[in-house]
């Protein structure tokens, strides 16, 4: 064996075959014939000076040397792919990939996509609706919008709070006449959102009734794992939702929902925007961030005249 690295094509063939444990599947992935892939691996073994695979009847398995080589080659090719994508993003100013939770994507971002396109026709927005933790390089993501209490996002990330969150009862206009007071809501069909059950202090129906000097008693009503589904049910007249202002802004403006009560619960949890540090100065990033700031400011009028009660101040 010599220290000089073998050809990249031979290493690529080995990595694919080791990952699939199949020459045929590896050849299909690399769009070459099985014979061509086998030749590449054979040349790699000759370069190495020892077998990397054991050829069995209808299968292959790695030798000890192959097992030592496989993890490093997989990591190396993943790093190369990430570096290639990162380099591409430095010259591609026409595409911006944004990830946000499914509810925020459906109820806030998507309805405003046309507005952004009108203002910035030179930028193509792409959305990835997900709540999982993102790796900007690995997942090919430019900007992440996340809901939570924030904290230390690390020295390599730019982080900016874009909008706070508060909740108040919302319902179809036809239901508003049937439930004119906070007391009457005790008998209303209440809709619950389990996706914010992790908030501490809690921002739920029990907390809202306590903020009004009332006790809910037995909890009843339909439960939803996603806030956007609960909002859709409320718009259909199925019940009253403790609506999150960030997700109901358009529905309130269009009168598909009304929020007739003054009391609202505010939480320290908020939406923030994250991107690799330095990216916020790039033209397409700056345009999107400024657009976010303008659009979120428009929601402030919903809070005018309301009695905001911090979740921390509601007694248990």
Automatic annotation (TrEMBL):
**Which Gene3D superfamilies does its entry note?**
Periplasmic binding protein-like II (3.40.190.10), Winged helix-like DNA-binding domain superfamily/Winged helix DNA-binding domain (1.10.10.10)
Q: Which residues form the HTH lysR-type domain?
A: 6-63
Domain of life where this protein originates = Bacteria
Task: Cite the entry's keywords alphabetically.
Answer: DNA-binding, Transcription, Transcription regulation
Instruction: Offer one Pfam family short name for this entry.
Output: HTH_1
Tell me which PANTHER family the record gives: GLYCINE CLEAVAGE SYSTEM TRANSCRIPTIONAL ACTIVATOR, HTH-TYPE TRANSCRIPTIONAL REGULATOR
Question: What family does the entry list?
Answer: Belongs to the LysR transcriptional regulatory family.
* Stated name of the protein: Gcv operon activator
Q: Which gene is annotated as encoding this protein in its UniProt record?
A: gcvA_2
